[in-house]
């Protein structure tokens, strides 16, 4: 973790005009939660993209991807340069700092998922599942109130400092943030709102058409597949994974942020959370391609005035996005 903190400081030092570090919370063990704000200075009002990594401690590919993403943004290509004039990127490399550090302790802690807060009185176990702790249908679905469970949602909605930090930072910028991306592993999936089977986001069709049991061959899936041949699936959690409440993505969508995705990075279960080191680079490259595809769509919809109506352009870009139906019992 020290390495990641030093790396963030180094990036700021090398790119003072484009990158700033923002501390926006403290973990239970009193460590600082920081993000990098990346974007060119602009006279006009900007929009923003949110990305957080490392909400679940054991999903080590996630913080690695956030670092990869940041390195790509400030190196830039012409399209990224244009987008950085119109949008800032808020990227948190590690949200659950306490849990992440704990997962690095030894083999016995490697698969730790939650943060490190004490359970309620009378319970010996530590930790809350931060992706069950947000204020959206809190404590109703895909959770357990046994505090030893890996999906323990906490004592109440937003009881955890780490969830509170996102709630405050993003909640104060809902007019600015166009897109909320939260990065997990594993399963090779892109999840859209909502995690609750009875709630459907109003623009769901723009993100995905619900066709189960078919290969995802939309532009988004193809953009990821063309990098290293890996097939990703897109859909809501109840459709392609499992139902659950209290996730950051669902919360963000409920705040009115029009696009919200959970990325479940590599792999498909061969190595699971313990993805070999030599897959970090290819996994990051394909995920970057997917993220860039989404971000470009979001940017162009907001900033490029179409010759036809925005709706037509969106429909052209996002038609027939299909999801493969996958059953899974692994909690990611
Ligand atoms: Zn996860």
From TrEMBL:
Record bears the keyword Transmembrane: no
Classification via SUPFAM superfamilies: Zn-dependent exopeptidases
Gene3D superfamilies in alphabetical order: Zn peptidases (3.40.630.10)
SMART domains cross-referenced by the UniProt entry: Zn_pept
Swiss-Prot/TrEMBL cofactor(s): Zn(2+)
InterPro entries assigned to the protein according to its UniProt record, in alphabetical order: CARBOXYPEPT_ZN_1 (IPR057246), Peptidase_M14 (IPR000834)
GO BP: proteolysis
Protein name according to UniProt: Carboxypeptidase O
UniProtKB keywords: Carboxypeptidase, Hydrolase, Metal-binding, Metalloprotease, Protease, Zinc
């Amino acid at each position: 973790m020290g390495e990641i903190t030093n790396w963030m400081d180094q990036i700021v030092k090398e790119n003072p005009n484009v990158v700033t570090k923002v501390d926006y919370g403290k973990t239970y063990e009193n460590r600082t939660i920081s993000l990098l704000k990346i974007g060119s200075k602009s006279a006009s009002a900007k929009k923003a993209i949110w990305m957080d990594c490392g909400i679940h401690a054991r999903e080590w590919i996630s913080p690695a991807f956030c670092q990869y993403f940041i390195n790509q943004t400030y190196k830039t290509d012409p399209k990224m340069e244009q987008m950085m004039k119109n949008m800032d990127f808020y990227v948190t490399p590690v949200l659950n700092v306490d849990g992440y550090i704990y997962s690095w302790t030894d083999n016995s802690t490697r698969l730790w998922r939650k943060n490190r807060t004490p359970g309620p009185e009378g319970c010996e176990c530590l930790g809350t599942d931060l992706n069950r702790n947000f204020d959206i249908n809190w404590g109703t679905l895909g959770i357990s109130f046994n505090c030893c469970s890996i999906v323990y949602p906490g004592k109440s909605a937003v009881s955890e400092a780490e969830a509170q930090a996102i709630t405050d930072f993003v909640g104060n910028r809902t007019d600015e943030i166009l897109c909320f991306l939260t990065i997990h592993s594993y399963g090779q999936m892109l999840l859209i709102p909502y995690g609750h089977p009875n709630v459907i986001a109003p623009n769901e069709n723009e993100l995905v058409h619900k066709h189960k049991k078919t290969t995802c061959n939309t532009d988004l899936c193809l953009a990821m597949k063309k990098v290293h041949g890996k097939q990703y699936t897109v859909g809501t959690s109840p459709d392609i994974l499992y139902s659950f409440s209290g996730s950051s993505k669902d919360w963000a969508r409920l705040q009115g942020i029009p696009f919200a995705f959970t990325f479940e990075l590599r792999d498909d279960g061969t190595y699971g959370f313990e993805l070999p080191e030599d897959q970090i680079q290819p996994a990051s490259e394909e995920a970057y391609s997917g993220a860039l595809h989404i971000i470009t769509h979001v940017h162009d919809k907001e900033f490029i005035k179409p010759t036809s109506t925005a709706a037509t352009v969106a429909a052209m870009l996002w038609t027939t996005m299909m999801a493969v139906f996958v059953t899974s019992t692994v909690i990611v």
